[in-house]
Amino acid sequence: MWCDLELLLEVVGFAAVSLCHLALDGYQQDAAARWGRTDLPTFHLPQLVAFALGVPAETLGLNKHLIDPRKVLVDRDLIA
Fold first, then answer.
1. Continuous segment of H or E residues that includes residue 3
2. What distance lies between CA 56 and its chain's CA centroid?
3. CA end-to-end span of the chain, whole Å?
4. What is the pLDDT of residues 41-79, one digit of tens each?
5. CA 23, 28, 31: angle at the middle one, nearest 5?
6. CA 23, 55, 1 angle in degrees (round to 5)?
7. What pLDDT shows up at residue 59?
8. In this predicted structure, what is the pLDDT of residue 2?
9. N or C: which end of the chain has fewer CB within 10 A?
């Protein structure tokens, strides 16, 4: 799974601090005005660590993100 997570980190943002995560997730519209992209999912670092350790994605609160990161996980066959 580590190799898969390395590939995942190429297409998502992640933050180690909760407020940084909220800023990355919440200011997508501002980024779109500047760079034209609004679909960059972000993960909180403990979510990635827990996922790498085998915690099921359903229990990580991914459904609470503004930009749903589960699509990236599904596209890379990391979750169903």
1. helix 2-8
2. 15
3. 15
4. 878 888 888 888 889 989 999 888 888 889 888 988 888
5. 105
6. 90
7. 92
8. 45
9. C
Both tokens assigned to 80: 């169903």
d(CA 40, CA 56): 22
Contacts 24+ apart (CB under 8 A), 17-22: 18/44
Question: Do the Cβ atoms of 31 and 37 come closer than 8 Å?
Answer: yes
- Looking up tokens 């979750």, which residue turns up? 79
Beta carbons within 8 Å of 78's beta carbon, 6+ residues apart: 1, 4, 8, 51, 57
pLDDT in tens, 7-34: 555 556 666 666 666 677 777 777 778 7
Q: Enter the DSSP assignment of 13.
A: E
Tell me if 43 sits within 8 A of 18, measured CB to CB: no
